[in-house]
Amino acid sequence: MRSNALLPALLAVTAVACDGKEAPQDSSAAAAVTFYRDMEPVIVEKCGSCHSPGGIGPGEWTNPETAKTNAFLMNVYVQAGKMPYPAADPTCRDYNGSHRLSLTDAEKAMFQAWVDADAPLGDEADRTPGLSVPDLSLTDTDITLTPFESHEVSVGEDRNEYWCVVLDNPLTETRYVTGIDVDVDNRQAVHHMLLAIDYGGDAGIEYGTDGKQRSFACPDPIVESDWMLLHAWAPGMEAVEFPEGVGLKVEPGQQLVLQYHYYDDDPATPIGTDQSGYRLRTAPSVDVEAQMSAVGPTNFNITAGDPAYSAADKIRNEWSDITIYGIFPHMHLLGKSMRSWIGKSGEEDVCLIAGGYDFGAQMTYMYTEPVTWPRNWNLNVECTWDNSAESPYQYNDPPQNVTFGEGSDEEMCFALFYFAFAG
Ligand code: HEC
User: Which of 84 and 21 is assigned the larger pLDDT?
Assistant: First the structure.
């Protein structure tokens, strides 16, 4: 009976595991899923970047013994769609790393079959040679931006702190940023980082300082009105790389500001200090100068208890054709899914982003092929939140209405996008 139930799974497994190889002769022994032959390549590629030493996830699933011991738990997370974290659906639009960020149905079936067979390690001789955890950090960066001081994180009663630091601008000539990576120092504390240029060169003035301080508290509004965002980072984020010949312009003397959002989810333990910074890959020239902008509603009131409350917004392209390179969907803890698309009445919508959202693993999805946003078309965004008692990161007991705001106990709905005017 048990093997009957397994049959479809095993067939699927055979298709995956024997890709390009001779199919096993039959018999459950040959088809039994093993760690070394079947599971290791998938785990190394799709779990390893977080669940190996230095990664953000607990447990070292790439270690055969640890994987075996935790096989049951891993499978529970996999079958529930919790791991890997929900990510944008590549069938809406494909992006860099899409293959790595989700499991196929066949791979999910393989996890199940492996656990059903008591998670055998199998024969080491079956190992795929040369496997290694994907290294997702940018290695060819040429500029490092480190804050001048380590900040003693100090959250308020609502457990949030917003802190800004003016970075030393090391440029002696105009450069174009073609790749962006972040060195996160205190992973427990940092909930987001925003890197911006302050065109006025007086960061802090709108936060009540004299505009000359090198670090200062920077609560609402989100960013000063004369800042241009270069990058937004949130937990789980991988490096951003622009297509060949595209970059963000930064000039010598421009004031670079880094805004941090710290959040203390465990007031019982000291949160410590932080000195997170940036690493940039730059080029002396590019063909296309990219910028970053955002669209999203701010006037919503997410009903207490609603498992799927949605709000939407759009902007019309009144200028000229625009090329979009990638999107960073951003919501807070109650965020469940986001959809973004380009549309015009009477025309078919062009999908930009669709799919699950998890605060713990936010991504800038850089498209494998840039998308055109024609003049006079709208860019739409729609967010859905789960404000029920069962919501995975629910912080109100019982749930309360939640409105727009910067705090982790308020909500946001922004599609931040990298774009350039075409032609
Ligand atoms: C982007 C990083 C990332 C990737 C990729 C990832 N995980 Fe995780 N995983 C985490 C983090 C962070 C946690 C801890 C927070 C949580 O439970 O949500 C976690 C928690 C888990 C847990 C719970 C562990 C415990 O002790 O409570 C399991 C099981 C798990 N992951 C399995 C997997 C499997 C299997 C894969 C690959 C198919 C995978 N994860 C891919 C980051 C990741």
Answer: 84
